[in-house]
Amino acid sequence: MRAMAVAAMMALLTQPVLAAEVVPYKVIELPRTGQWVLNLDDDSCSIGAAFGEGDGQIVLKLLRFEPSENFEIQLIGRPVDQFMRVEPIKLRFGEGAFDEAAATGGGVNGIPLLLLGWHRLVADPRALAISPAQEAAITSFTFRAPSRQWYRLATSSMKNPLAALRDCTTDLVASWGFDPVQQAGLANKPQPVGNPQDWAKEEDIPTVTGDLRHNAAFVNFRLDVDETGKATACHIQALVGASVYVKPTCDKIAARAQFTPAHDAAGKAVKSYYLNRVVW
User: Of 128, 177, 192, 234, whose Cβ has the fewest other Cβ atoms within 10 Å?
Assistant: First the structure.
């Protein structure tokens, strides 16, 4: 994994008051205490920064596995442990509407990790595209849950971090051997034949012992799909959990998956890829 710092081009802005929301619990404001850091893996791009210090520190991490308006949100730090078994968690960037998340929990080296699923910078589903001006205007990330404290992370402008993340995912597709321009203009992506939930079965779950036996694993994977709809390769994009879950994810799912192929703008079948996640 390589890391590069994304320079902040705007000073930290004073955070506005939460818009028209009743705040029954204390809002904990955490300033950004480090640079945004872009991580480039073979199958994913992420950008993250730390907020606060010591045991009160929270790391906000945004992940993308392909060019998209969506990203997966991860929160890492001891304060997020209180949110592990509470739903729904509400979140928002800036002062827009709150979005709801069905959170799942894990850990990184003993530190609680909260997965908040896939979200957009703007929760309104009618917003088809998010402009650089909207990204620049976002200067905070807020999350809360019933009967829990509110947290607001002072991100400063999100323009440069998200621009870096966007460039990273374009390069990512090229590194997989696909033409980013062609993939962005597809008439349709590969479509599963049948229900993808049938690709992973209970008997595929590996036998684990000790501390692993009660822990779930979250595995993001990518299948390369050729012009006939056949899955030709499997790649693990991200893993939260034990490495013993990697082999059944690729071996079993790649063998069972079937697709109708992708088509370019002219209607010609072309090779492409398919992304999903399995929870063991």
Answer: 128
**Looking up tokens 């904990």, which residue turns up?**
28
Around 257, how many Cα atoms within 13 Å sit in the side-chain half-sphere?
Answer: 32
**Ramachandran bin of 20, using left for φ above 0, alpha for ψ from -120 to 50, beta for the remaining angles:** left
Split into its structural domains, the chain has a count of 2
Tokens of 224: 């390369």
Q: Considering the entire predicted model, what is its pTM?
A: 0.77
Strands 272-279, 218-225: pairing is antiparallel
Integer Cα distance of 249 and 33 in angstroms: 37
Last residue of a domain, one of 149, 175, 201: 175
Give every CB contact of residue 117 below 8 A, 6+ residues apart in sequence: 72, 73, 101, 102, 103, 104
Q: Of the candidates 175, 203, 231, which is a domain's last residue?
A: 175
**160: its two tokens:** 């440069």
Residue with tokens 């398919």: 274
Q: Domain range spanning residue 70?
A: 2-8+19-175
